[in-house]
Amino acid sequence: MKLENDFNDIFVRHFEENITSSEINDKISLLNLKEKQYIKDNLSVLHYGYEDRKTVINSQIKQILRSFDTECNYFFSNLTFKNYQSYHNKLVKSFETLNRIYKVDNVEITTEYLQLKLEKLNLIYEKEKKIEEEREIQKEIKEQMKEEERVRRELENERKKLEKEERQFNNEVNSLFKRLEKSNNDIEKELYAEKIKQLENKISESQEDKKDVINRETNTRAGYVYVISNIGSFGENIFKIGMTRRLEPYDRIKELGDASVPFSFDVHAMIFSDDAPKLENVLHKHFRDREINKVNHRKEFFKVSIDEIESVVKTNHNNTVEFIKIPQAEQYWESQNLSNNETLIDSL
Q1: Nearest by Cα to 52 from 64, 60, 44
Q2: Which controlled-vocabulary keywords does the entry list (predicted)?
Q3: What is the mean pLDDT of each run of 10 residues along the chain (348 residues)?
């Protein structure tokens, strides 16, 4: 058991974030070459007590190496995220057991060769983690591209709708001006003038709205940072802090709660910012030590209080943002009440 402890942390290596699975695979290939060189240079197995190595212990060396390599290859082939530590310990145990069995033959696997195997186990583990991470990143890139295309279409449709409204209002104004010029009735003229004024106000509003939409089209960093919770799914004081560029940000919140969770999300704050990614990044960095998923930072769930989030937002954004402190969680509380009633009835 001492060896298990001695080798427990030597090769638990975490590579820099920008390394790829392909680069780790290259490291494994180099390690395989190193293993072969160890065997060729007689560094993989120690032997003692015999002068004629070729005729006396060659078969024992081959047997102990074959046995150890077979067991190691099984661990390498079946390694998963869950069994890494278990396989690490089993590999060391295999090393100890085989050396004990072959002690009578005066051969033993070297600790240096064991170290190579442990390093390979760790490299394979890190490669699998990277492959999963790269798969997640590609999935999120595709989702982000879909979201950006959805936002682009939404903004384009809104701009076209506003332009159409503006044309209609202008046509109505022109028509009313013609009627006003032809009219000889003062009351009629007054009604036309009032309608023209109302339409001109609508045109001004429409132009302002169109200006905002065009700004959102050109400024791709403008959007909403949202703070939401779902106590029925994740418990209390667990918040998702994300962002969306949608014109209707609550549509995005509805999507998040549609099928993946049993209850809908409660919105605690919806914060518009000309640089939403920056504000989102400030919040994520501030609460990095409280994130739920320590491996995948893109999951955006944090165990914090709403007061802490509010403080960071108001310090880094502005003091006018309104926060809803207590979630409604209507369906969750109703479900709890129904469950309690069922329990009470069953106990009668």
Answers
A1: 60
A2: Coiled coil
A3: 51 63 92 94 84 67 94 96 93 96 91 96 93 86 86 91 93 91 86 92 92 87 94 93 93 84 92 93 95 84 96 89 90 83 63
